[in-house]
Amino acid sequence: MEERKPLLEVRHLKKYFGLGGKKELKAVDDVSFVIYKGETFGIVGESGCGKTTCGRTCIGVYDATGGEVLYDGKDIRKQTKQERKEFTRKVQMIFQDPYSSLDPRLKVHDIIAEGMQIHHLVSSKKEEETMVQRLLRQVGLNPEHAGRYVHEFSGGQRQRIGIARALAVDPEFLLCDEPISALDVSVQAQIINLLVRLQKERGLTSVFIAHDLSMVKHISDRVGVMYLGSMVELASNYDLYGEPLHPYTQALISAIPMADPDGEATRERIKLEGEVPSPINPPPGCKFRPRCRYAMDICEKEAPKLIEVKPNHFVACHLCHQQHK
């Protein structure tokens, strides 16, 4: 069996935001994971858990406070000017809000063609026009839409335009930052199916960030669960949804509605007590301890490390570590 090659390696990543004085918001606090070529890696968690900040720091939108990010084996903070430009072509982002991420003053053609022009990917206006029309077809839009402005489109159509813009520079890595959360439920599945198809056709590697675990299940190969700036569980799609080990993951998955009415009526739903603590002043030890029904003395004294307790299944939980020794 051929060994998978890492494309993005994140090592002890930290991103803190200063709030004046000595106060710091620890949005991402010592997070490590690897993304392999050709896979979709999901990052899930409640709003404010740091998943978007983590994704953006991984691709250099934010400067890391600590740790390192290697892309294709090279530290992104040590790139030359030319390497940085090539990196911004290879790595593209699809934004959460299709209403604010597209320039309303530009026609669709100009929005999609901008990246081609910056990276000198086309040699003539005719070639540029052909490329734009081809991309519009690929994302399910009419080539005639190229001459319109974005306010003339629905939310789902605007997100398709955003996807076409990202694909215009022939990237190899996509960061999808909650790309369906601002869309109608009826449109969400269409956009998910489009992203799955494009990934297969183009051999893309992608990170899919969302708080909707049911959507992440459909698109991801492996999933990382974040809580208050930390990664608390990381496993394959099958293992995470089939046998969640961290109490927080168990609670999140228990809240996913079931299609079977009888099963939905009889199953146990795990309710989390209390509110998410402040990332400015997180609790000592395990950050999840104040809301955990299994909390032990050690949880208050020592923060659990993300440890492999089963093959390719990593958990940051003292109880899980004891059970799987």
What is the fold's blueprint, element by element?
Elements: E1 6-18, E2 24-36, E3 40-44, H1 51-58, E4 66-71, E5 74-75, H2 81-90, E6 91-94, H3 108-118, H4 125-138, H5 155-167, E7 173-177, H6 185-202, E8 205-210, H7 213-219, E9 222-227, E10 230-236, H8 237-242, H9 247-254, H10 261-266, H11 297-301, E11 307-310, E12 313-315, H12 318-323
Parallel strand pairs: 3-8, 3-9, 6-7, 7-8
Antiparallel strand pairs: 1-2, 1-4, 4-5, 9-10, 10-12, 11-12
Helix pairs in contact: 3-4, 3-5, 4-5, 5-6
Please characterize this protein's 3D structure.
- With 325 residues, this protein is of the alpha/beta class.
- The chain is built from 12 helices and 12 strands.
- It is 34% helix and 23% strand.
- Strands 6-7-8-3-9-10-12-11 form an 8-stranded mixed sheet, with helices on both faces. Strands 2-1-4-5 form a 4-stranded antiparallel sheet.
- A hairpin with a 5-residue loop joins β1 and β2.
- The longest helix is centred in the middle third of the chain and has 18 residues.
